[in-house]
Write a structure and sequence with these properties.
five-stranded antiparallel sheet; 2 helices; 10 strands; globular
Length: 183
C-alpha cells in the first residue's frame, strides 16, 4: 500500500543519449558534409572528399550520399587540383607539398610517402601511394605484431599535419610526379 503521508517524488528522467537518434540519420549512416570540403571525381560513381570534421580532416569516398567503407583512391592527375582547392579553403597549408618547385622523377608502382603516428599501442602510417600509372591511394596502414603492415580499408580521419607530412613525403618520393611510374 502507498504511504499517503509521503510527498510525491519526481522520477528521474532518462538520459538524453539513451536510445535517441538524430532526426533524419539512418542507422549506421553518415551525416552529410556541413563544413568546408573539396572534392574530386566522380570515380565509378563515387566522389572523393577532403573535409573538415571535428578533430581534423576526413578523406573519404562518398557514393549516393553515404561514405564508402574503403580507402580513398583517386586519379593522380586530380590530386594537385584537389590540394590547391584545399589550400584555398584553408583545409591544408598553402605552402604544402610540391610548393618548393623541386620535382622528383616519377615513382614506381608501390612507392609511397608516409606520416608516422600511433593508433593506441600500435604504430600507424598515413600513406600516399602510387598503386598504378594513373591512380593514388591515401590510406592508413597499421603495424600488427607478428603480422606486419596492414591496409585499413576505411576513410581516413587525422589531423591536417599528418596529411601535410604524408603528401610532402610522397612528393619527395616522386609519387605525385606527373607521368606515372618510372619504367
Amino acid at each position: 500500500m502507498l504511504d499517503q503521508t509521503r510527498p510525491a517524488g519526481r522520477r528521474p528522467s532518462p538520459s538524453r543519449g539513451s536510445g535517441r537518434r538524430t532526426a533524419g540519420l539512418k542507422p549506421g549512416g553518415a551525416r552529410s558534409s556541413r563544413g568546408p570540403f573539396v572534392a574530386a571525381g566522380p570515380y565509378d560513381g563515387a566522389e572523393i572528399r577532403l573535409e573538415r570534421v571535428p578533430g581534423g580532416l576526413r578523406l573519404a569516398a562518398w557514393r549516393g550520399g553515404q561514405i564508402d567503407r574503403a580507402a580513398p583512391v583517386l586519379a593522380a592527375g586530380d590530386l594537385p587540383r584537389l590540394l590547391a582547392e584545399a589550400a584555398a579553403q584553408q583545409l591544408l597549408q598553402a605552402d604544402g607539398p610540391g610548393s618548393d618547385g623541386a620535382a622528383a622523377p616519377p615513382a614506381e608502382q608501390g612507392a609511397f610517402g608516409a606520416s608516422a603516428g600511433r593508433a593506441g599501442e600500435l604504430r600507424d602510417e598515413l600513406r600516399v601511394e602510387r598503386i598504378d600509372a594513373d591512380r593514388v591511394r591515401i590510406a592508413r596502414w597499421v603495424m600488427r605484431p607478428n603480422r606486419g603492415w596492414e591496409l585499413q580499408e576505411a576513410p581516413v580521419m587525422l589531423p591536417p599535419e599528418r596529411f601535410s607530412e604524408a603528401l610532402a613525403a610522397a612528393t619527395r618520393q616522386g609519387v605525385l610526379a606527373p607521368g606515372g611510374p618510372a619504367e
